[in-house]
Structures are given as C-alpha cells and as structure tokens.
Amino acid sequence: MPVTSPSAPSPVRPPAASRALVVVLAVLGLTACDPALGATTTGQDPTGAAGSALAAARELTVKGRAPMTGYDRELFSYGSADVDENGCDARNDVLARDLDDVTYKAGTRDCVVASGTLQDPYSGEEIAFTRGQATSSEVQIDHVVALADAWQKGAQQWDEATREAFGNDPMNLLAVDGPLNNAKGAGDTATWLPPNRAARCGYVARQVAVKQTYDVWVTSAERDAMVDVLSTCPDEPLPTSDASWWPEGADAGTTGDDVHYATCADAREAGAAPLHEGEPGYRAEMDGDGDGTACE
C-alpha cells in the first residue's frame, strides 16, 4: 500500500501562537499533521483532488451506529464461499496474493497455502507463515472494514448475496499480523490504526473505498479520523477492485473451474471422489469429519 507524499505547499508564515505550538510539538516529537492531534498541516489540500481517497471520505454518509441485534459472522459466508469460483476459498486466495515464496499443500491443485513470508503492512515486520494448528494464527486475514462494523452501519439491511460478496471481497481482505488483527477487533478508523504509520494512508484509503462501494456509512468521529489521516497524504488514490487484487492466475472476470457436485454419489459417479480441500467441487458441507477430504 504505497503512500504518496503531498506536494510541498507554498510557504506561509503562521501567527506567533501557531509558531509556538509547532515548537512545543517538536519538543514532544510530534508534528502538526499527526493524526492523533486531530489537526492538519497548514497549507495541505483541505478537500482532496477528484479521485482521491480524501475527497471520497468527505462524501461518505454520516450516521450513528445501529445496534448489534442479529449479528452473526456466518451471515457473511466468509471462509465457506468461493465467490470468484476458482476452486479456492477466500482465505487461501488472499494468502496466495499477499505472501511471498508461497508453497502449497500437496494434492490441493496449488490452492491451500502451506507456507510463505508476509511483509506485514500493519507492523512493518516480516512474518514467516506455516500452516498448522499452533502456527496458522500468526498470520490472519483481516476484514479491513470489519464485519461487525459493517453490520452496525448498513449491512443489516443487505440481502444474502451482498453480504457474501462483502465478506469475501479481496479489496476488503488483507493478510496481516495475527495479534494485531485481534487487537483491532471490529475497530474503525476512529478507534484503531496500524502501528506502522507508513501504512496508515493506504489502510484508511482502502476502508474508504470499501465503504463507498457497499454504501456503508460512517460515524462523525470516524469520518473526522479518516480526514485527519488522509489530509497528511491528500493525493492518496482511492483503491479500486480489479484483477490486480487477485492472486496470480486468477481473474475476477472469469469463472475458472466451475465444478459442483450436489452429493457425494454424484462426485463418485463422475470419478472425482475423494474431493480434497482446495480442489474444484470440494465443499465443507460434504466433508463430514472436517479433515479436508470429502466423499471418502
């Protein structure tokens, strides 16, 4: 998530009181554009250019939070839906996209990621990923706009297809440091930002893009926080969902291996059984013991 530096503003001599504030901030190791201060540097673009994340943030609908009544993560079908129909679930798609030096579990047609290296955007650290009961959680898939946050800001009114699309949209999914993802929880921009400051503009820009795409509203505190961050990088572009978001070999505009067996009997009749996790035709509901192999 590259950060685009704003063009240098024309020199403006601030009033004496403002100059004194800058001196105090310098002593404290802060700047006048630090998002934690809720203020922006004098001379920065107050609105953002057309197509920028800052301009889009200012246009988001502002409302209060709705109650959490009826919320269930399962309503978004994350982890069970194969939205792009390439035979792999969203988690493995994102791991394949975001990790380097990826290896795959044998027998899964290069779908189930076994290992790789993550350049974590939230911490700025390199994390080794190895699939396993004790190690998989070190790298988690974050919903940039959390499912619970979306539920309180519009998703309660969505139909099933929209929730499934949102829950598995690659623009809303990032492989990240597991403990930091746990710390974020369902936080929005007003309550949580990545510790890695270099990632904040890209992170907030992606939240804006997702909320704009799905018409998810924001609270006033959230929009103010978005504007504060993006005012430090007013040329940060608004991300778009296109083929570049998908793992190599996948194409968001094609259906891939569109294989579906209604029952294990159908799979056996077609000579496809057993079906392994990650292979076209495999579905978790066909895997009674959950061991990754269906129709044994």
From TrEMBL:
Residues 1-38 form the signal peptide. The keyword Signal applies. It holds the Pfam family GmrSD_C. Residues 260-296 form the Excalibur calcium-binding domain. Residues 276-286 have a biased composition (Basic and acidic residues). The keyword Signal applies. Residues 272-296 are annotated as: Disordered. This is Calcium-binding protein. Keywords: Signal. InterPro entries: Excalibur_Ca-bd_domain (IPR008613), GmrSD_C (IPR011089).
